[in-house]
User: Which sequence fits this backbone?
């Protein structure tokens, strides 16, 4: 019984990824182009989210500054989720909804990219960060699910929306991490060329 339940999770996750491949390949490719334009022009990616999405923001920044699968020069990325002094000061003094927006205004510049992650598309602090990014003339790459929520209204035509077609948070997050890995792989591919496979 337990093993069947576990197997069903794998099946459901695989099914969603298979269904999403065609739907999300175009926005993921657009995200790659936006991020490539940013980093090759000396810009940086600022990433934010809450809970599991905060972990995804950190995961992405680590793979950009470190590496994904190949050695390459460092790429500029900052997870806005990691500085406990900033987060607690802003949360205490201004409220939780502003913890990312103030960092975006402080650190973001025209030409940078905000990677805004919210499984529901309704996270108030992520939406405030999107607004702050627009004030700074940044492009937003948004990852959401559940139809996109308020993110649909917050984004501009020049932004990119990767919206996973599912209601369940766990499934949405599983596709988000795959989408982020696709972005990392494609950026490396564009910068370094095709990865040679051993013969």
Assistant:
């Amino acid at each position: 019984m337990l093993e069947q339940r576990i197997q069903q999770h794998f099946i459901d996750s695989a099914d969603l990824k298979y269904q999403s491949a065609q739907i999300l390949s175009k926005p993921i490719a657009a995200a790659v182009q936006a991020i490539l334009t940013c980093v090759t022009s000396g810009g940086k990616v600022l990433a934010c989210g809450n809970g599991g999405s905060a972990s995804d923001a950190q995961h992405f920044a680590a793979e950009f500054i470190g590496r994904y699968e190949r050695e390459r020069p460092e790429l500029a990325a900052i997870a806005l989720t990691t500085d406990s002094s900033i987060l607690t000061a802003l949360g205490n003094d201004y409220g939780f909804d502003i913890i990312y927006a103030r960092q975006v205004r402080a650190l973001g510049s025209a030409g940078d990219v905000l990677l805004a992650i919210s499984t529901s598309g309704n996270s108030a602090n992520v939406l405030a960060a999107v607004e702050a990014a627009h004030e700074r003339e940044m492009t937003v790459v948004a990852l959401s699910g559940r139809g996109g929520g308020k993110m649909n209204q917050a984004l501009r035509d020049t932004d990119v929306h990767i919206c996973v077609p599912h209601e369940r948070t766990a499934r949405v997050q599983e596709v988000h991490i795959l989408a982020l890995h696709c972005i990392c792989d494609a950026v490396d591919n564009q910068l370094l060329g095709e990865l040679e496979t051993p013969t």
